[in-house]
Amino acid sequence: MRTFLIILGLVLAVVLWRGYEFASTAGLFRDLEPQMAGQCTIVTGVVGPEDHTIDPETGIVYLSGYDRVSAMGGNPKPGAIWTYDLTDPTPVPINATPDADAGFQPHGISLYIGEDGSRRLFVINHGNGEQAVDIFDVSEGGLQKVTTVTGELLRTPNDLVAVSPEAFYFSNDHRFLADDFMRPFEDFLGLPMTDAVFYDGENFRTVAPGITGANGINVSADGNTLYLSAARGSALHIYNRDAPSGDLTHQKTIDLPGMPDNIELLPDGQLLVALHPKALELLAHFSDAAQKAPSQIVKVDPESGDVETIFLSLGEDLSAASTGAIFKDRLIIGAIIESKFLDCDLSASN
What is the CB-side half-sphere exposure of residue 335 using CA atoms within 13 A? Predict the structure, then answer.
């Protein structure tokens, strides 16, 4: 009986400890003060613009989107890659994949620009119940699909970053699949079981194991540093990257005031990271899109570790922001299941 009580006490202690840790990570004790970024315009017409990136030379935004609510309900609809030209005085989203069917469910994207100016867009695709990376050539005529990459290590891919015309890193955001009974335990307990994987154009290999909810991923302009967000860990991991081999060496971790999502680079080497500061409100938003969830974009200095909020709303304009990217004085903010995104003019006064 005594042994049983000791074991029961230890179990209860672990549950209480992890419960408090979960509540802290979920933002139950976090107060939010809205902070706008210039003047923001709501742009409609793109369903589920979860990830986007901006061509730094042309000012064209590439947005990936699909209807996650319909997909989770067993009725997937065609997803799309959209373009949005920031050099146009009156830009509108244009579907760059109009012939896609319901088997195209794009998630994380990455634009690779070669030394010769050639461009390729890498897209994670969850369509047809499979996990793949579709690679497109980018030209003035639009997107032309080159190839599709599949493999066993593409378990639960979330985001990716291309480092050559064929090679890329990607994050798996869960160890267990959605229908696995262990999935809720992985989330609640914050088990460090996710990873980042490198595909060298021929083979896959895990290069960053033991991450608590791997999510956004990107590399520095010189390719020597890799950034990986840990959503469940509320942290940003920074790695030294050996370009010839693709190997990573952990350098440091920066704590963040929320659950980080996608990562975009700024010209000065700083990072823009989208955060989910209230996880339970995020979950409520997933269950009912009418429920608002806060959106936060922070600027992170990877050298000093300084974190500065540049945008924070309680969700009235956009709920559950997942990506923020800047081109000159324009901040584009996307979200997970909304049918809109924000185009913010940073030069305008609030």
Answer: 31
β-strand 168-172 against 157-162: which pairing, if any? antiparallel
The answer on pLDDT for 241 being more than 70 is yes
pLDDT in tens, 66-89: 999 999 888 999 999 999 999 999
Q: What is the DSSP string of 274-322?
A: EEES-HHHHHHHHH-TTS---EEEEEE-TTT--EEEEEEE-SSS-SSEE
Q: Residue 267, exposed/middle/buried by CB under 10 A (0-12, 13-18, 19+)?
A: exposed
Would you call 91 exposed, middle or buried from its count of C-beta atoms within 10 A (0-12, 13-18, 19+)? middle
CA distance 22 to 19: 5
Q: What is the CATH number of domain 31-345?
A: 2.120.10.30
Residue 23's pLDDT band (boundaries 50, 70, 90)?
low
Q: How many CA atoms lie within 13 A of 324 on its CB side?
A: 29
pLDDT at 30: 65
pLDDT for residue 285 is more than 90: yes
For the chain, the average pLDDT equals 92
Query: Alpha-carbon distance 136 to 122, whole Å?
Result: 6
CA distance 256 to 198: 25
Scored b (16 or more CB within 10 A) or e, 36-68 reads: ebbebeebeebbbbbbbbbbbeebbbbbbbbbb
- In order of 122, 123, 202, 347, the CA distances from 147 in angstroms are 10, 11, 13, 41
Tell me the per-residue pLDDT of 219-230, one tens digit each, with 9 for 90 and over. 999 999 999 999
Amino acid identity for residue 138 in this structure:
V
